Amino acid sequence: MTVPSVTDVGRRIAYQRRVARLTQRQLANAAHIALGTLRKIEQGERGIGDDVLDSVAAALGVDPAQLLPRQDQADDRVHAAMPGLSAAIATYDLPDDGPVRPVQELRTAVEESVAWRLSAQYVRITRRLPALLEELSRSRQLVPAAQRPLVAMLLVSACRTADAVAYKYGARDLSARLVDLMRWAVTQTGDPLLEAAVAYVRTETYFAARAHGPGLRALEQALDAAPAPESVQSAAARGALHMRAAVIAGRAGNSEAAETHLCQARLLGTRVPEGIYHGTAFGPASVRIHEVSVAVSLGGDHVHQALAAARNWTPPDCLPQERRSGYYIELARALLWAGRPDASFASLQAARRIAPQHTREHRWVREDAATLRRLKRSDAESLTSFAEWCRATR
Question: Are 370 and 387 spatial neighbours (Cβ–Cβ below 8 Å)?
């Protein structure tokens, strides 16, 4: 960390500490650092390394990115960690020697990483996932045969968490390799519902290649193979696949298939309480968000359907931050196309408040912010600042 940023980091830590209503001693104890060290950091008298920053952020319950003075530094940390993620999956079958925690402790660590993914805490993910992936690879080789399906399940979840960062930060080759590793590991779990979740994630590779037709066929094959919706879990698995199929059908311009899959998702959504199932959010609110997404994907005359689905409705706080911010990003595009630039910008700002890292890295945010800036033909401070923040001027 560079010297000019030290004061800013200290101020941000002090601010977040006050928000959390913690004394300096309480925060120091929670972060396992000396009280004098924390005092010097907050006063800008000493720098802070990555390990201490992560410990302080964890104690405050925030992502480390919120403590960094410039968003570019958060981006730098994410991009700097990509080679570590790549190395971890390159050696999945020949991991280096090292410590291996009991399987239950690994499960807790993976569940924590999934929570980071759902809340779009990408800096935290990239700091922790390379070592966790390596440890899971070692565990897979060392545990008794009876525990290998569980370790394989954990490896799938950890790879999905890593993939969320790789995909959103444009490392598409790394994302595809992580998806391939998920597809290999899931065959060892014996869990058809997890296989459905992997099929859901695999669609990213089709989105990235703009191969929407083949992506739709792959999802329909996954639906054919998925268990019948006889339980809440199986209904959620099928419902998530239908949601994904509806969106990619929309991208393919296939409105009939999009509506068919969306209709199936709605029906299944009535049987499932909103929640996280095998790492994917599904339920009535998630389906409604996808109604907006499908309409935006189809574009043209369908934009009014997006606005109708969003009218007088906001996504509930129980949904993951990433999904809620995605909703406002999609809605912003619909509002822009409908000739409502001020409402569109307000929607982008809402997305930023909910999940800043996810919003900043979204291609549509940059495109729409640049368009809004041109349309307004003014140098409004807030819009200019937002456009510069998401690099819309580049």
Answer: yes
Question: Which tens digit of pLDDT belongs to each residue from 288-306?
Answer: 999 999 999 999 889 999 9
Residue 219 shares a structural domain with residue 276? yes
Selection from 197, 207, 208, 288 nearest residue 248 by Cα: 207
DSSP state of 97: P
Domain of 16? 1-69
Both 350 and 239 in one domain: the answer is no
Helix (H) or strand (E) holding 276: strand 275-277
Task: For residue 168, count other CB atoms closer than 10 A to its CB.
Answer: 20
How many domains are contained in the chain?
Answer: 4
Rounded to the nearest 10°, the torsion over CA 205, 77, 359, 131 is 50
Domain-ending residue, one of 69, 84, 107: 69
Residue 2 carries which side chain, given as an amino acid letter?
A: T
Answer whether 0.70 is exceeded by the pTM.
yes
**Are 120 and 145 part of one and the same domain?**
yes
Instruction: Let me know whether 196 and 240 are in one domain.
Output: yes
CA distances from 214 to 175, 219, 258, 261 (A): 18, 9, 14, 16
